[in-house]
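Suppose you are handed a protein chain with no further information: no name, no annotation, nothing but its sequence. What can you learn? This example shows the usual starting point.
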Amino acid sequence: MSRLETARNSQDFAQIADFSRMVNFPARRGSAAQPYAQTPLWQVHLGMLRDMIFAHRAWSDAEDAEYRAARAVLYDTSQGDVFAPLSEAYLLYREYARIYAELQLSEADPMLLNSAMTDWLVHGSKSQIEAAEATIARLASRSTLPLANDDRVRIDSLLPVDPTGLTYAMTSFSPLSASTEAGWLRAEVDLSAIDPVLDHDSAGQRAWRSWLGARRGVVSFRYVMLVLHREWFTDVIYRGEDWTREGGKVSDGSGTHGALAAVPNRLFLVRQVTVKLDRPKPDAQTGPRVSDDAIHAVLHRKLRSGPRAKPSGRLTASARVLSANAGANTGASLRKGVRPGVLAGRAATLGARKRSPQTVVRMLRTLPHHDNGTDGAAMRVVTPSKPVTAKMAFLRSAVIEKLDQGRIYQRLQHAADLISQRNRNATQEVIPNQPPAGTTRHPPPSDTIWVVGFGCDPLPQAPNPNPNYSWPNGVAAQFS
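A reasonable first move is to predict its three-dimensional structure. Written in structure tokens, the prediction is:
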């Protein structure tokens, strides 16, 4: 970008020529942009200028009478209208205008300035002369012929040449702050908002939608909008009513049809593009579920057909050692009215070191109580159906836990939830920044600038000749 702003060597001028060829092409509404067109915009514009047929006079008969009256005030037309000298009134007007300007520069007394202005209005015909000048300027500006001649000379004779010897029409841009880091803005766009602005190519759209699928996320980037400036293109010419053309319409006014329907006037650039995809969240309400009645029926059959649990309960691998010498403390606990029990719930919180049954009972009473039967269930003592009077066997890394029907149901339900969640994650796994099928995309370097679009303006309906103007004979016959 800095090379386009201040060219210093042949490489910079080569980039300017490349930029000019990229942004100058005939545009059309509903069609994709065509940078580096085979026939650039300046050649199309030059062809239109060469085909234009201009009117002899860009005003009507009534306006022609106004024009002649204004010229009679400014010029002495008694000896002819060609090379007519200035009228006496016009010469006197210019003399009073010079005197008044000198008084202003010398900071003369206000009374003297007022007196000079009065003489200028009365004797110098100030109002009449300035009205005649305005009439001639207004009617003369109706003609676009001078503007067309200027553009024709710039393209035909004054085009620069790039280092390879090819001509191009120089095109500049604003703001110049785009060549600095501060001139770029930051933006973030949802992936769903990109679809309407994609290329109209059907294959490209299919590839994009195939990749997008159910993905959700945002695209973050920095961007800038450049306004293009062309000294060799004057769009006011195409609004004029004093020219026509053989060979069809230049534009229909909508930017859709014509040899030059629209012109690209803005350029959109982005850089530092990153894609952030949202990781899918599993839906707790979806996935395979088993009804409570079916689970209860299976558990009922299992419990009836399987071996009956012993009063002392079953051993679990996650239990801890309760006491290194349980028999020594059993009698003491029975004398206090506390049976040696079977621990259920969060047994790991009791610790791995040796404790007496009294210590265990005190810990159980102080633990908080929860109604659910999962990891936060209350620690409790499950008393065997028969009193235990013998010594308790020494257990290595185990605590006796009774698995009743409700406990088994909770574990089966938890296992079903884990399996369902794993299946959903496997089917909805997203590979971040995966390109569409059949394409290979590498992350752009930080200094890469991408052209993402052009802003085009349609030309007005042209040609639009005014039949009241004075035209050459062949053209005038078309209006009769």
